[in-house]
Amino acid sequence: MAKLEPRGRKVKILATLGPASRNPEMLRRLLRAGADAFRVNLSHGDHETHAETIRAVRALEKETGRPIAILCDLQGPKLRVGTFRDGEARIAHGAKFTLDRRDEPGDEKRVFLPHPELFEVLEEGQRLLINDGKIRLRVRKAGTDRIECVAEVGGIISDRKGVNVPDAEVPIPAMTEKDRKDLAFAMSQGADWIGLSFVQRPEDIAEARRLMGGYGALCAKIEKPQAIKRLDEIIELSDGVMVARGDLGVELNPEEVPPLQKKIVNETRLTGKPVIVATQMLESMIDSPAPTRAEVSDVANAVYDGADVVMLSAETAAGQWPEEAVLMMDSIAKQVEKDESYKERVHFLDTPSDATTADALSHACLTIADTVAINTIIVFTSSGSSARRVARERPAVPVMVLTPSVATARRVALLWGAHAVTTKDIGSFEEMIAKGKRMALRHGFGEAGSKAVVMAGVPFGVPGATNLLHVVTIAGDELKKHKGD
Fold first, then answer.
1. Which whole number is the average pLDDT over 150-179?
2. Which of 28, 58, 78, 80 is catalytic?
3. For 215-232, what is the mean pLDDT?
4. In this predicted model, what pLDDT tens digit does every residue of 308-346 receive, in sequence order?
5. Euclidean distance between CA atoms 468 and 361, whole angstroms
6. What is the DSSP secondary-structure string of 329-345?
7. Cross-strand bridge partners of residue 415
8. Residue 294 pLDDT > 70, yes or no?
9. Are 72 and 193 in contact (CB under 8 A)?
């Protein structure tokens, strides 16, 4: 595969892998089409298949020389009903229906609910949503062994359908025994990001952190209304956030989701941490080679809002047109970012700097790029924190992130506007300037006569020591004068 040129856009594309896309040839095509990172959904499939998929991504990374982030998404505590005598039953509109603790096949009047914790928290008047909200039950009476409901919306209910509880905080951890095994697997396979599903409270993040033991980066998936109440704390404890609109849209009224999406994006952007907008973005492209106009607008609005990442789910995992879906998302993002109003729109959100030298320098990068004709901002970083600070400012020029850490380079693949390059560490100011110029030329971010802003920290190689800003002019012959990287 030929060398990949810089994307020419700031927002990143995260593509979910599955039966339609995990073979090496399709992976190659998705990367070429515009995917910057890949999601492995541990809710489906087995570890052997996922390990093979991850190996294929790493082989592609080696082939192209481009750092690729892998996000392994944990299933989380899915609540489900039991089974039915005939595999399914019909609940009539307005009919009484009971969920109980009798482990016996159900019928049109009752079903087993294998989650004792629900019997402890549900109260009269609260809702139970089954099968993604297609069936809506209202609690009439709740006890220690029975939850008596009336069906506000009836329909067909079948074996092991999911249950959503929008009106109560369910006292279960965000990680099940399966999740613990899946997390250990993901860490053993070198996943860069871990997606934590159904986060309700900061304690859920703390538990995952403890199990990860300092490994990798943690993305909190916001898909429960309860998480909104403590959003600031959850963002603070996470490395990134995903607006998981699927389950969030089940537990809330549909019209409540768009303003919440904007709130989550804005609150996360204030911290400089990457925020992903996910679920049903180009849903019709599962079966169709072209999206609806509404879907195009949905993706465009997420880009206009300054989200770091837009995500494809079933479109690339199981759809008939995975490559076309990535191409379409890439095309939408580029079109939005070419819009004259994009810069103004993405800066509607004021991201005030913290009272630190690193934040002041990051803001200065934005000011310089707006004042002088700059091609790129070059950030030397070991941990990636300087790159996040610069990306938070949403500068008009690309951010080239130079790091000796492969893990940092991969994680940066989900950061707005960042193009990561792994390179040997530097030891002096002169070496930093010379390397920055060479890398700008080599990766298409500069030419003879162009300027770049270089940001780094002295002493070199010390995390959190960002204290240096320098504007350089590229002569154009730097690569000819130097051998190596």
1. 92
2. 80
3. 94
4. 999 999 999 999 999 999 999 999 999 999 999 999 999
5. 8
6. HHHHHHHHHHSTTHHHH
7. none
8. yes
9. yes
pLDDT above 70: residue 68: yes
The pTM is what? 0.92
Taking the C-alpha atoms of residue 256 and residue 249, their distance in angstroms, rounded to an integer, is 8
Contact 118, 170 (CB under 8 A): yes
Q: Is 201 a catalytic residue?
A: no
Q: Which SS3 state, helix, strand or coil, does residue 63 take?
A: helix
Residue 143 pLDDT > 90 = yes
Catalytic residue among 53, 268, 271, 279: 279
Instruction: Specify the pairing of strand 193-196 against strand 88-91.
Output: unpaired
Q: Of residues 22, 110, 136, 221, which has the active-site annotation?
A: 221
Instruction: Report cis status (omega within 30 of 0) of the bond before 105.
Output: no
Identity of the amino acid at 363: H
Could you tell me the CA-to-CA distances from 129 to 132, 154, 243 in Å, in that order?
7, 11, 20
Which among 249, 179, 260 is positioned nearest to 212, based on CA atoms? 179
Sign of the alpha-carbon dihedral angle for 286, 28, 2, 451: positive
* Residue type (1 letter), 482: H
Catalytic-residue membership of 210: no
The one-letter code for the residue type at 169 is: E
Task: Supply the mean pLDDT for the chain.
Answer: 93
Report the percent of the chain where pLDDT is more than 90.
79
Q: How far is CA 282 from CA 218, 270, 337, 341, in A?
A: 25, 27, 19, 24
Tokens of 210: 């403890």
Residue 1 pLDDT: 55
Active site residue 263: no
Residue 167's closest CA among 181, 147, 183, 185? 147
Which of 9, 10, 22, 39 is flagged as catalytic? 39
Residue 461 binned pLDDT confidence (cut-offs 50, 70, 90): low
Mean pLDDT of 368-383: 92
Strands 374-380 and 37-41, sheet pairing = unpaired
Residues 435, 135: Cα–Cα separation, whole Å: 61
90 as an active site residue: the answer is no
Mapping DSSP to helix (H, G, I), strand (E, B) and coil, where does residue 100 land?
Answer: strand
